[in-house]
Specification:
The chain is built from 26 helices and 27 strands. It is α/β, with parallel strands linked by helices. The chain has a seven-stranded mixed sheet with strand order 13-14-18-19-17-16-15. It has a five-stranded parallel sheet with strand order 3-2-4-5-6, with helices on both faces. Strand 8 and strand 9 form a beta hairpin. Helix 8 runs antiparallel to helix 9. It is globular and about 105 Å long. It starts with 6 loop residues before the first strand and ends with a helix.
């Protein structure tokens, strides 16, 4: 059965109509725009004015930042004394723009300045002892880090030993022990600086402002690109930086930026945050992912148009190569997923996979399979190296941290990690990681949430709606594009597009108007969607498509869902109280389990035994199937007869037979031969010993004795087993409990071992 990728949750409209109308009238804003602003926490008229139209007062005083005065004094002293200053950057887009901002600023101030961008593969991230030593050996007496450094204790200590000062400018998470630097410019260390979400480029821009004692308008383009690329909050000062930066980009004379925009086939005056986020920033990031990132600084800072054109062409060529590698490695990695269907965390290992793109691959696999994913490649000397990405609610860093003894190198945070370990340690590493995930109660079948701002019809998508939404741009983290659930009467014109037919194009038909829609990555669902064309809804954002002088509005689809009953797959082998907090009716097949879980239910939830429910007479908003049925017919009854819009399936089972399986014929023969030699066994005292002696699982041994008893091969009285002399010749499969075991195993296989798509499709077939 086709199902949505996300769990849709509509944002509650918690504000009064009176407040929205009052603010709309006072500010002259459309009510929809005002409603969204209020829902996002903007209720003060002055606050809203600055959000919609920032001015220079929204750029905070740089001297409020921690150690800014020390940093400025040390840099100015270095300039006055003609010391060699090195800007030590980072290889991503935020790091490249940060480096370019300070490099240009110091050049303009007459400094003797150069820059160094560490190599992702040989230097790693952040201050590197060997790199620092080489810089100092070549005459550097002041290193200024940008977008890194706050965790570079070892390298900074080494620099001080060599009589070189280090000024750190960074925005990353603070370590327990700060480095012994000359100055550390960091918003989180600044109690008087009210905005804590600056990117590396934002911090570098503040340093440039403090050094020149004025806002460096010509550097706002770089600050905007770095801010957008690093996915920091697009509120407060960042929103001002991006708004001002986009204005500068539209008029820029920077050769490198103009060349990048031309290569992206964009119009300079129309570049927006989406173009930067999905075209410009990935191109800049690809430079450091694929090799040396230094050409990125050259591109951003060159004054020569020919050089800029050449570097921009190389950058986009590199990015195309990066895209190709990501696609190829993702396809190879996906082929390995089927072998790990039972693993709560996917760990995919390949050979000769490019290290620079493994984080992107891990992210794609994670999104597709909704499981934490680690992607590794084998390198020289039996070492594997790679990246991991997690799902909401599972701290991947904390899950891996206890296994540091198995790793050569490790770092990261809750949602993303990098790691290196010896290949022979992989099996033990994966086993321990799986155990940790289960202990954390990781729910691998849960879908991520998609937050919906409003539900609308295709008729509502027009110029007025688009213009009202654009008042809220630029969009990004903490100011996402409003997400709409759109309910068409019909989905028509479904067709797969793209070179590999991996995307979908279609139309949403309303009562009076139709609107086009694009769904990237949905091509494989084409046939299923065609079958549901009259029973679909989509979630997405409103965009605009210009082609051959014509402008049309279109929906950029984030998810597609059936408009009728939805079945949610949340199969689990562990029940926790949080799973019973949603309002609804929780159905149980087993009365004992119902009784045990009664304390978990809150006032908005109730529990019922399936055998007590008259499904034809009762309607339910949301049904939860909690435990495992004894027979398929019990589950089929619920699916066929239940009147509800949503069924969530947990299918909890305390003991899984499939982990033990069906005893082999050889095992039965072995047990029978043993009983011929020892025809009497005191089961109460010797069952464990007997299992060890025969190398049988205790549960399997008990089951085999049950089969033998039913077939008349043995008798059991008062806990003592006696072999029957001259037992009847009966096949094992004639045993009722043997037959039931086979049925139970088949039921477990169908209900628990299948993929989510197979499972939902099969459940849907039970309803017909």
């Amino acid at each position: 059965m086709f199902s949505a990728k996300f769990k849709w949750t509509e944002k509650p409209q918690t504000v009064t109509t009176e407040l929205v109308e009052s603010l709309s009238n006072e500010l002259g804003l459309p009510q929809l725009t005002t409603q969204i602003l209020v829902n996002r926490g903007y209720t003060d008229p002055e606050q809203i004015k600055h959000f919609l139209a920032p001015d220079e007062s929204d750029l905070l005083a740089p001297m409020l930042l921690h150690d800014m005065e020390k940093a400025v004094q040390r840099i100015q002293t270095a300039i006055a004394n003609e010391e060699q200053i090195t800007i030590y950057g980072d290889y991503d887009a935020d790091g490249l723009t940060s480096t370019a901002i300070l490099y240009e600023t110091l050049l303009e101030m007459g400094a003797n300045v150069n820059y160094y961008v560490p190599n992702r593969f040989s230097d790693g991230y952040g201050p590197n002892v060997v790199a620092f030593e080489k810089l100092i050996e070549n005459g550097t007496s002041l290193i200024v880090t940008v977008d890194n450094g706050v965790a570079g204790n070892e390298a900074i200590d080494r620099a001080r030993e060599l009589k070189c000062d280090v000024v750190v400018t960074d925005h990353h998470e603070l370590p327990e022990q700060l480095p012994n630097a000359t100055a550390i410019v960091h918003a989180d260390l600044s109690p008087d600086y009210p905005f804590k979400e600056l990117s590396g480029a934002g911090i570098a821009f503040k340093v440039a402002t403090a050094l020149t004692d004025e806002i460096p308008q010509e550097k706002l383009d770089l600050a905007a690109i770095g801010t957008i690329a690093d996915l920091v909050s697009l509120t407060g000062e960042n929103r001002a930086l991006v708004q001002f930066g986009l204005n500068v980009i539209h008029l820029t004379e920077r050769p490198g930026l103009k060349a990048l925009i031309k290569q992206a086939k964009l119009k300079l005056e129309q570049v927006d945050e989406e173009n930067i986020s999905f075209q410009i920033a990935p191109a800049l990031n690809s430079i450091g992912r694929m090799g040396e990132a230094t050409p990125g600084i050259q591109l951003l800072t060159t004054d020569d148009e020919a050089t800029a054109t050449k570097l921009a062409q190389q950058t986009f060529k590199t990015n195309e190569h990066r895209k190709q590698l990501v696609t190829e490695i993702t396809e190879q990695a996906e082929q390995l997923v089927s072998n790990q269907a039972d693993q709560p965390v996917l760990m995919l290992v390949g050979s000769d996979w490019h290290e620079g793109v493994l984080g992107i691959v891990a992210s794609r696999i994670k999104e597709k399979f909704q499981k934490p994913t680690i992607v590794l490649t084998k390198t020289k000397n039996g070492i594997v190296k790679g990246s991991g990405r997690s799902v909401p609610g599972f701290d991947l860093f904390q899950a891996l941290n206890p296994e540091r003894n198995l790793m050569v190198a490790f770092g990261g945070h809750e949602m993303a990690v990098g790691l290196t370990l010896a290949s022979e340690r992989l099996p033990e590493f994966q086993r321990r990681l799986g155990e940790t995930a289960r202990q954390q109660g990781l729910q691998t079948n849960q879908r991520a949430e998609l937050s919906i701002d409003y539900s609308i019809q295709p008729d509502d998508v027009n110029q007025t709606l688009y213009d009202n939404l654009q008042l809220l741009s630029p969009f990004g983290v903490d100011n996402e594009k409003p997400e709409f659930a759109i309910h068409p009467n019909l989905v028509s014109g479904l067709m797969a597009i793209g070179v590999d037919k991996s995307h979908l194009k279609f139309e949403l038909i309303g009562n009076q108007r139709k609107v086009g829609a694009i769904a990237f990555g949905w091509g494989s669902q084409l046939s299923q969607l065609r079958e549901l064309a009259t029973n679909l809804k989509v979630a997405g954002t409103i965009g605009k498509n210009e082609f051959r002088g014509r402008t049309n509005f279109q929906v950029m689809v984030d998810d597609i869902a059936p408009a009728g009953m939805v079945i949610e797959d949340r199969r689990t082998n562990k029940l926790v109280q949080a799973m019973f907090q949603e309002p609804g009716t929780y159905l149980f097949f087993n009365e004992k389990i119902q009784h045990q879980l009664a304390p978990y239910l809150n006032e908005q939830a109730k529990s019922l035994l399936v055998k007590d429910v008259d499904f034809e007479q009762q309607e339910f908003d949301h049904l939860f199937i909690v435990d495992f049925p004894a027979q398929l017919s019990e589950l089929q009854q619920v699916l066929k007869q239940a009147q509800t819009s949503v069924i969530t399936v947990y299918l909890y089972k305390k003991r899984h037979l499939r982990t033990v399986g069906m005893p082999s014929r050889e095992q039965y023969t072995k047990l029978f031969k043993f009983l011929e030699k020892q025809p009497t066994v005191a089961l109460r005292n010797q069952i464990t010993k007997l299992g060890q002696q025969l190398h049988f699982d205790p549960q399997s041994l008990v089951f085999m004795i049950q089969v033998f008893t039913e077939l008349g091969f043995v008798t059991v009285n008062n806990g003592v087993l006696h072999k029957v002399d001259n037992p009847p010749h009966r096949a094992l499969k004639t045993s009722t409990c043997y037959q039931q075991r086979e049925l139970d195993l088949q039921l477990e296989k169908q209900l628990l071992a299948s993929s989510q798509q197979q499972f939902l499709q099969w459940l849907q077939s039970l309803r017909t």
